[in-house]
Backbone:
């Protein structure tokens, strides 16, 4: 059907194959859990791609037919080929949305679009995490309340080395004393980027209803817009004047 | 029908009654021209309100049932009652979108939400005006090209005393040598605000297809989001701790 | 001496006169404590002004000779005359810096320059407060570390109804479970505005070294810049074209 | 001397050696002209580095002792070694300022810190160029008026594929009908970045007084701040909780 948002959920898909504990939470991988959830939403059609597929599952055909790419990676960021990162980068600049989840803060593609180190502080003791809404007019918080909690979460703390967001949507409180800019939006070229902190491989976070709501909202916010006749972002055309140049002017 | 965006187009509606020239372009007023155009769009239902109606047409009932308010004013900004401005301001902070058109840069409500003087340079000789897209990923430019032209336009030039926009969508080039931030977005409370420069009472600008496209897109971008249980923005509640406070902590 | 930054510290100065407890911390008022601290810094000369002086101490002469105005108010915001707020607003738009401290979030002048309700959540149990630096390249954090703590503080929590800051410098963690954007910068007209959360009348917060460092840095960041021949921001001049307008163009 | 800002002006230095016309304007290279101008300013000490020196003149020692790096390149961006770009990138994230001039929009280092293609439209017919100030409170415009003109300039036009700036300082008008965000600021890690459009190798733009003023102001704005104990941005430390984690909390 036309006007359906075409999402590809990318996952490195290693943790789930190595750990029974993780496999119990995400039997077919985090990507499958997210894609299944998204396919239950009206107007969204989600597929998946994983690291060990040829071209990491991100062939030209897949990328061309993806409106929004969701990225989850953790232990194998360095295995993602630069040539694929280059292609994904170009697609983002030319309109594809990108949603980076949790440990994807350190993925090559997220660091590429940010231009910063994307480093942070972290701790893994399953402490309590509360996300406060700081942009209640933003479509990504549609359906939420003032805050929501994730009972056991890996801590990510400031300083988070990202550019100042174009919109800062969530700030997190952690029990151990840290804060974190846990939901943030940026424009890049014709594309849009959203980073969202929740989501750890050993915790059932992508089954959490508010987390699912945010991801669904973010997919809609990231949707490409139809600008007409825009150049490919890699091009820098030499152009003729639109106005007559007169010396007297 | 549910989920229909309810728009109110407000106009001071004075120019049209005093000038045959203007009446020829907008026989039932600028508000009617914009509302008629919007009512032809799917999912939008637009009504109107004008200065000389009781409460300027902006009763509590009208405001409560308005998702997005479009504002056009020019010669009678000072006649708008402060009590109505207060109410509109509160509605914006609590989620209603606001679109300020052209000379509404000097309206009480736009100045109120900006916090600045909103002054600018101007000139009225009908020169050529070209609006360049500077945020090609923003939904407000959906359907446009790299730029569009308005053949005869009142010039508005920098410095435009507005806060730095949360998203700068258009920058204008004027034949006489000025530039202008002519399309700009801000978040305010739970509401969203868009300023759009084109539109002069003696020129048929609201019959221009790209201008109509931008206004329609802006209405959709300005739509309220459903946050659950958010306080009225005028309230500052004294709250209990969400966590146990221990001295040892 | 030339090039000295001229600061005026404004205080409503009521709490200190009514409470022995507060008077013990600030014997000559919060304004005097801050001005004394600033006068010990090189290149800064600070005076004071208070609510009960004629024109609240903010005569035309004082305002004209103030580069940066620091504002502290709490119980008597409503007693500040609108005519004085108008003048202060104009001075900010024409270049004067403004630093709003703690409960000044609800002052008339801060709400005026923000355009929002500036409401927040609050609680007064003296809990622990930790401010994290989120803009380590910003001059306001010069001399600080990754975070600093204020041992007993009034809690201010999100949602804080402010426009998205032009630079978000601090995010606060509170023991009771909230977060807060506790240091934020905005441009307004030719002026600059900084909001800084720490500072409660019954707590010796303005004797805290990091708090003093931030206020001093903020004064320097807020310094006016010398633009040449800029109009008063209240003016909207009708101007001649800078370029020849030709029909063929 | 302490507190002196240490600037390194980097130039690919090829045009000047190949063209008599360019050599006539910049006999010792653009880098020398800029460094000489900066060395005449109080509190600034400028050196130079060029492409054909070992390590492009940007040894570890030079980078460690550089507070602000100015970059000019055009025809040889691709000859800059990635290993050097990596080092410069790290220095920026750890506090060094970066000023990219004119055709440096396409330099590897500017594209790296932006995360976008940094492409634009261009035309080289020496048309008139007028830069309008859009942030009159920003220290980079200190000493300027509302606008300034560069009589003959290469045109750079929108869409300029950069992230939305943290502060947009100049917007340019070009005689041929285009506009351009010609002065823009971003925070990156602990560093600051400024892009400034004027400056073409065949035109004496760096002898222009307002252009010199802007570059000098930008050097001061880009100065590193002394944050204490901040980690290297490449590090992502695993940290202990600052607060006691209790299950009841």
Residues:
């Amino acid at each position: 059907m036309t006007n359906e948002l075409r999402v590809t959920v990318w996952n490195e898909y290693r943790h789930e194959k190595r750990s029974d504990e993780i496999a119990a939470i995400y039997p077919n991988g985090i990507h499958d859990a997210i894609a299944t959830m998204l396919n239950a939403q009206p107007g969204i059609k989600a597929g998946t791609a994983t690291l060990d597929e040829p071209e990491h599952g991100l062939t030209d055909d897949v990328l061309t037919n993806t409106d929004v790419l969701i990225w989850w990676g953790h232990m194998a960021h360095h295995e993602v080929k630069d040539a694929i990162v280059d292609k994904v980068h170009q697609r983002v600049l030319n309109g594809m949305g990108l949603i980076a989840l949790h440990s994807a803060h350190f993925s090559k593609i997220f660091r590429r679009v940010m231009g910063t180190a994307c480093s942070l502080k972290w701790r893994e003791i399953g402490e309590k995490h509360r996300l406060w809404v700081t942009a209640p007019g933003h479509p990504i918080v549609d359906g939420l309340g003032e805050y929501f909690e994730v009972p056991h979460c890996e801590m990510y703390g400031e300083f988070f080395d990202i550019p100042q967001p174009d919109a800062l949507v969530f700030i997190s409180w952690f029990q151990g004393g840290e804060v974190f800019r846990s939901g943030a939006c940026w424009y890049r070229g014709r594309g849009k980027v959203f980073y969202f902190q929740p989501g750890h491989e050993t915790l059932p976070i992508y089954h959490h209803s508010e987390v699912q709501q945010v991801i669904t909202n973010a997919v809609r916010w990231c949707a490409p817009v139809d600008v007409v006749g825009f150049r490919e972002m890699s091009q820098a055309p030499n152009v003729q004047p639109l106005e007559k140049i007169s010396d007297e002017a």
